[in-house]
Amino acid sequence: MILVLKIFTLTLMAVLALGVTSAIIFVDLHESSAFASDEKRPDAYAEWDKTGEFTTTGTALARVVDHYMNMDSNKIETLTVDIYTERNEDDPELQVTVTETNVNSGVFEATISFSETKKSLGHTLQVKDGDIVSVEYTYSQVPGSDKREDMTGVGQEKTIQNSQRESGINNVDKGNKDKVNLPYKPSNSLNEEKIKWLESSYSATGTGVVRVIDPDMNLDPDEFDNFDVDVWSDSDLAGIDLTLTETNVATGIFEGTIFFSTNDESSGHRLRVTEGETITAKYKDHTLHEPYASTEELDTISTALIHGVYNPDNADNRITLDKTSYTWTDKVYITIDAPEHNFDSNKIEVIGNYEQHPVKVATRHFDLDNYRLVETGANTGIFTGEIVLTGFSHDADGNSQTGMDGNDVADINPRGEGPHNGSLPANGEDGITVSFEHAEDETAISSAFILWNEGETKWLERGYADGETGVVRVTDPDMNLNQDRIDNFQIDVWSDSDAGGIDLTVTETDDATGIFEGTVFFTSTDESSGHRLRVIEGDTITAEYEDNTLPSPYTTADELDITDNAIMKNTTVYSPYKQMKNGVLAEHVTCNGTLERIYKSNGQPTCVKPLTAETLIQRGWSADYP
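Given the sequence above, the corresponding structure tokens read:
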């Protein structure tokens, strides 16, 4: 029996006239032979990624959702869609390949660019003001069967209006995203990998391929686009900037090949590795959809292994760094044990500043070549030097009125020849690697992480009294912005009785400690001002530090308020009678201020002035509990 299936093609046209939008729905019926059995094909549909209007110079994602065409769960697959305006409905201008957003997703996307001047070609559709643009998907093959269909999927249409081009890579209005009934997880979800090693492990002397799938980075539909990603190994945490190139025009799929080496330093597309270690690739996504803000970015990573078993005894440990991890503005001390370069036992010698045996100091995006290190003394064979990490342009204290254009740290280009004048920019999540070619084809390396830290706020005491002073301590190595000076910044301090509080300046306890303290003076009579805070007994006092240098998974756009509380003590001392009535033993009764406690002959305590106490004791009272 041949089943006849009625397929509905819905066309939604938005008509703009005199500022009023009306909608007209057209329904066409098409008959088509379907399966020769009762098997039901899962629903599929085509759509644009946005509702509302597009711009004549913008872009949009053409999307197909068809889980039935996900034929290989381990492979990224493709389909074909027609893109056209209503003026060319019978002869579609574009046939575009849409690519699966991830293996096994069943969701296929391609970025379409609109232009008033360019002819329709590749992924660019020529449009004019008022046009209606459509995406149409036609089923062509039933997977696993020789049955064929001729069905047209639902094609949504949007009205093009002539409006000002928006800034950014994706010019579609981000405010019009349809948040209801999304049929799939967004391709830039935090939990979905956009970057991937094509294999789970590689040979230490082989090659590896990194792939990124991101249709937003198909910036020119008529050209092969490219961009860089960070790649590093456990033994070379600075790693390389790997260039990924689009696999074809307008695919939105980008790949790059890495050559692994166990002897040579990392450079270009070559990465220094050691058997048994992990290699990491990181892609920073700047084109995020809602709910992300346009200023946000998201790091996605993928890891793989280098074949073999790691043996630390085989490592060349002649290079020593003073720390296993640094913050973005740290000072790095380098020591290299190179007795074979101690040529003259009577001279203090130098290594690294010549081409034959260079010393290279690198972060993931910057490096200093031929960096000079100096022997610690005649005939020691030990060479030392230092470089300062200079961070990147960032508002570290959250105050736009401090620093240069609001940035407390500003980009500084790599500079210095050594041994003490080197500086290198560094990100909040980075790596530093020092390499030394001590002999022909023999290079030693040493690496350390560069990481941001989550700060801590703390009152040094849990409680304070009116008239006393309190100390707030903030510990955050990331705020040690200058290694050679004492840094400071402001935090917020307030009480229950003065919620406005004060801006308290906390100052580094010494050069490069990363520990900051500020003193608060508590008063119940004066208003808050400067370092003085208005309080009353029983108040909770709060210190709050806004941390703008947060470790992963936070981004550079994130901030975190870190607080600590203390209590204003109740200093009122009740009479001995009330204290004992409340259960205080006679010998534990306390007296207010300078009053002294003495006892009657019956053991009852009382509080009197010192001169009075002396007189009463002479008359038979006791200073000690009977």
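The first strand starts at residue 4 and ends at 17. Try to locate this feature in the token string yourself.
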